[in-house]
Design brief:
globular, 97 residues, 5-stranded antiparallel β-sheet, mainly beta, 3-stranded antiparallel β-sheet
Length: 97
Amino acid sequence: MTIPYTYASGTADDRHLDGNCLAGVLSEIFPGDPTVHECRCGTCGTTEPLARALVYLNSPGTVVRCPHCSAVMLQLTTTPTGHHLTVTATLHIPRLQ
């Protein structure tokens, strides 16, 4: 079932990218193309491919928000020693065959 876009309302100052910008860094953590993985928001319950998420890079790290309710779903910080990922959504990662 396709859910119509109800993109979370924001201000004119909101500068975000879509989830496709996460492909590089998340492919170091997850198998395959991570932008096609289904991600269910822990707040509103909407499930969409990660590519449709709202991504904010102007923070200390990367903040990924739900495109429907704007709740934070992922936070990613990269340091010289590795990646720090906080997940507040359900991310479905298919098994490799």
